[in-house]
Amino acid sequence: MPRPVLKQTAAYGRPGFKPMDHHDSPFADQYGLENQDVLNGLSELRGATDYYERENETLFESQTPPLQLYREKVKEGVDKLHSTIFGFPFRSGTYEPERYWERVPDPTMLKWYHPAHAKMLRFRRPSGVTPSEAIQSIVDNQAHWTLDCAAYIQVVQLYALSKTNPVKFDQTFNNTDLLIRFHNSPGVERRFFFRKHCHNGPWHALYRKQGSWDWWPIQNTAKWNDATLLRTPIGSRLMWRNKRIAPPETRTGQEPFRRCSYDVGFAKDAYRNENTVKYGPNLFRAWPLSNGPISEERIRAEMARARMHQYPDPALTGITDHIEKRKQYANRNIFLCEVIMFKLPDWINP
Fold first, then answer.
1. Cα–chain-centroid distance for residue 324?
2. Residue 214 backbone dihedrals phi, psi, to 5 degrees
């Protein structure tokens, strides 16, 4: 198949940026894709043709027993983890992890968070306690834990992995630190990462280029759009954003997607982003918007309800019907902006 012509925008046409040859294998480096046929598909991926859909069909429809069990355990984790306190995690006084966990700095988060907030939890390895038992202790003592929507996803994923194969899970974390972080905890690394920089913009795919990360603009929006991304498999992370709470330069749609900062205070940024776990067809666990899985439409409606009065849309000032106003606010301002499919260990998805 001939390589598609690449349209480089100003954002991606900076000095040093050049189209990659598939032999560079950036996705093999990031996602562990070692099949040569898949690597040959990278030229198609850059044009956003059928590569993603072929890869997704494998993810969507694989029915191996370990993968089926993992998906069941994701749903079990969501069902059981329902009584934690909502708030900024990993801070002193917000939970009681001392038996099994210790709070330590997370230097990788300094570019997003104030140093006082750039923390993570590390398993203490007390005698006679396995890593899988430490994860179970979070569920058993969840009333003493404070989690935001991002940390909630990390715990659910680690729970699902530990229940799918406790022996393999313990073997894995007997040789490496068991950590709980805001994102990218060991065992919860991303395989595919997609981002939309503004409300009506195209999707971008993350790839590794010359030792750093960059975003590749997906041009085939007819094939790769919100509807496709909502079909991601159970356990995926999907994030919605209220652009009214975003920095002004992001609201224009002309600037890159700006990182969320908690320096301004957790309460001010609450419901700016809502991270969710895919639970089933058009069902997502959005902690703490509901007591159980809800639809994409309900997520946007609840995000609108939570913040539309503090961050109004001037275009809707004349609407007096509250239900209609909330519906239009959700449609105009709240959008799916990130999707991550996690890399599963080979003892689940060989």
1. 30
2. -150, 165
More confident residue, 21 or 167: 167
CA distance 82 to 290: 9
How far, in Å, CA of 303 to CA of 318, rounded?
A: 21
- Cα angle at 31 between 255 and 17, to 5 degrees? 40
In degrees rounded to 5, what are phi and psi of residue 208? -100, 130
Contacts of 338 (CB under 8 A, 6+ apart): 193, 194, 195, 196, 237, 238, 239
Strand partners, 239: 275, 338
Instruction: Sort residue 168 into left (φ over 0), alpha (ψ -120 to 50) or beta.
Output: alpha
Contact 66, 164 (CB under 8 A): yes
Q: Please report, as a single letter, which amino acid is at residue 101.
A: W
pLDDT band, very low/low/confident/very high, at 118 (cuts 50, 70, 90): confident
With left for phi above 0 and alpha for psi between -120 and 50, is residue 163 left, alpha or beta? alpha
pLDDT (tens digit per residue) in 320-347: 999 999 999 999 999 999 999 888 898 9
Cis peptide before 248 (omega within 30 of 0): no
Using the 8-state DSSP alphabet, how is residue 48 labeled? T
Percent of the chain with pLDDT over 70: 69
Domain spans in the chain, listed from the N-terminal domain onward:
23-61, 65-188, 190-341
pTM: 0.78
Inter-residue long-range contacts of 222-228, CB under 8 Å, 24+ positions, other chains counted: 223/48, 223/49, 223/50, 223/53, 224/48, 224/52, 224/53, 226/336, 228/52, 228/53, 228/56
If one counts every other C-beta atom within 10 angstroms of the C-beta of residue 320, the result is: 7
Q: How far apart are CA 71 and CA 288, in angstroms?
A: 21
Minimal CA–CA distance to 191: which of 22, 21, 27, 25? 27
Contact 201, 345 (CB under 8 A): no
